[in-house]
Write a structure and sequence with these properties.
2 domains, alpha/beta, two-stranded antiparallel ribbon, seven-stranded parallel β-sheet, 11 strands, 9% strand
Length: 552
């Protein structure tokens, strides 16, 4: 998660998933799909890709894309018709018709829900969970006390978690956030009562003239954040939710985090083989992020509503596993397996964290996806840091030291010269570990509410752009393997002629210093590359069985 300032809240809105990058100029809503050569915008040349397949008279084959996220508004006008539907499940009968362990999983599954219908909305941060779990054992100990290699790793994890949980917390800032939070909650209560709405945006606030001081401040803050994000769709609920998350981070320095997930899900969190938990509530009151990502990939094209998704023959499988806070490794591993087992060919993963205590579970899921020829697309993160040299999970390297996953693409966020710069100021980067950059600044897509649309920014948006391109390639070249899809996208990436900003240092550098390919994704170039590829044999990576103790 990213640090914020107590006055400029725009940098923390939507946590690790969506960051502000103020526009220098007004840009078209679909700028990210446009062709750079003919429009001047740093988009993906999407229409040229469609023109190419049309000229070749290619027919598309439906592709299933899983979106592992915070939930999806399954009622949205631009998403409802393209949701994946489990053909073997009878909706609403309370029976596991296909006997896959998940009752009424019609459009996907929620791995952070309870069988009683409750859902995990907020959760703690993984660093805090690791710190408090290991504190009793390792507080005050040194390297001399770590005898085995496992002990040494555990001590190193504890020390890093302690620094992240305690060392990085500014007590004065925490007090300021707590003060601001109380004021905003009070102001929000007044505004809701006077507007007669529980949820509102700056559009609702425009004619509103508050007389209460806290309400005035709340209105001003929400307006400033919306302006910085170039969006009118940010709600009071989002603001309060994110501030609540920052408060939890501050509290974790002195007290163990609340077991939010355990009290609702009630599975055995130490047992990866205990997989049949959760519920089928895919909206679960937190669908903003996942709804936006799903629309980028596959919102219905050419229907005259809102916006067009990238791929035109996709079914979106919704898999909820990401709370407001850090996701749990077990949920991510099982979400990947669920998606693979139910036919997903591409998985979009816009989440990440600094610690991964059960990474071997996620590694197993990566291997399983590779063995079934499934491409994983992952957001690089929004901390403006070099992930070649800092921790960022999930990553391709297997924790047992035996190689890395070759079926995953890691994506940084690009912008436009008229849109704040060619590289997003918030984006993580890495010459070795970030594969490509894709549009992720002021991306217009679907939002919850059935008919809502708006802008969000983040590598979380760049990730589904790449997932959408991958789906488009697979539609028209269905024999491509996951590794070939990755190759087509990466080898066809277009290197900019000019230098770009290093998100961390702000220095002008070649994009090849920030990513492995040194290029921006381009749907047209990727489609050309895919058409020229020779069919290669599928390389299957066998699933690894790991023996685990009851404690995992």
């Amino acid at each position: 998660m990213n640090k914020i300032t107590t006055i400029a809240f725009a940098a923390m809105l939507l946590g690790a998933s969506a960051f502000a990058q103020k526009s220098k100029e007004e840009v078209p809503k679909n700028w990210y799909q446009l062709d750079p050569a003919t429009t001047g915008y740093n988009g993906i040349s999407l229409q040229k890709a469609y023109d190419l397949v049309k000229s070749k008279n290619l027919k598309s084959k439906r592709v299933i894309v899983a979106v592992i996220d915070s939930g999806i508004d399954t009622t949205h006008e631009d998403l409802k018709p393209i949701l994946w539907t489990n053909p073997k499940e009878i909706p609403g009968n309370g029976i596991d018709d296909d006997k896959n362990g998940y009752i009424d999983d019609v459009h996907g599954w929620n791995f952070i829900g309870g069988k009683d219908g409750r859902n995990v909305k907020e959760d703690s941060y993984e660093g805090a969970r690791v710190y408090h779990k290991l504190k009793e054992k390792w507080e005050g100990k040194t390297a001399a006390d770590a005898i085995t290699s496992a002990d040494k790793k555990e001590l190193a994890d504890f020390e890093r978690a302690k620094q992240k949980t305690v060392g990085d917390v500014n007590p004065q800032q925490s007090k300021q956030i707590e003060f601001m939070y109380s004021k905003i909650v009070k102001g929000d209560s007044v505004i809701k009562k006077e507007l007669g709405k529980t949820s509102y945006t700056t559009v609702d606030l425009e004619p509103y003239k508050p007389t209460d001081a806290d309400a005035k401040m709340t209105k001003a803050i929400l307006q400033n954040i919306s302006k910085a994000n170039n969006s009118t769709d940010i709600t009071n609920e989002q603001l309060i939710e994110e501030l609540s998350g920052e408060l939890r981070k501050g509290e974790s320095a002195t007290q163990a985090p609340v077991a939010y997930r355990h009290d609702i899900v009630k599975d055995d969190e130490t047992n990866i083989n205990d997989r049949n938990y959760g519920n089928n509530d895919l909206l679960a009151s937190t669908p903003m992020h996942g709804t936006h990502c799903a629309g980028i990939i596959a919102a219905i094209r050419n229907n005259g509503k809102g916006m067009d998704g990238i791929a035109d023959n996709v079914r979106i499988m919704a898999v909820r596993a990401v709370p407001d806070g850090d996701e749990h490794d077990k949920d991510i591993a099982n979400a990947i397996r669920y998606a693979v087992d139910n036919g997903a060919q591409i998985i979009s993963m816009s989440f990440g964290k600094d610690f991964s205590p059960e990474k071997e579970w996620v590694d197993d899921a990566f291997r399983y996806a590779a063995s079934k020829n499934v491409l994983l697309v992952h957001a690089a993160g929004n901390d403006s840091k070099n992930v070649d040299t800092t921790y960022n999970f999930p990553n391709p390297y297997f924790v047992n030291g035996k190689g890395r996953a070759e079926n995953i693409i890691t994506v940084g966020a690009a912008g436009d010269l008229k849109n704040g710069g060619l590289t997003a100021s918030f984006s993580n980067y890495g010459k070795k570990e970030v594969d490509v950059f894709a549009p992720g600044v002021n991306i217009y897509s679907t939002l919850p509410g059935g008919k809502n649309y708006g802008n969000l920014s983040g590598t979380s948006m760049a990730c589904p752009v790449v997932a959408g391109i991958a789906a488009l390639l697979l539609e028209y070249y269905p024999n491509l393997t996951a590794v070939q899809l990755k190759e087509a996208i990466e080898k066809s990436a277009v290197a900019p002629k000019e230098k770009v900003n290093n998100p961390e240092t702000k220095e002008k550098v070649s994009l090849s210093e920030l990513s492995k390919t040194g290029g921006f994704v381009n749907a047209y170039e990727a489609m050309k590359y895919a058409g020229n590829m020779q069919k290669k044999p599928i390389i299957k990576i066998p699933e690894t069985k790991i023996k685990r103790s009851k404690k995992g």
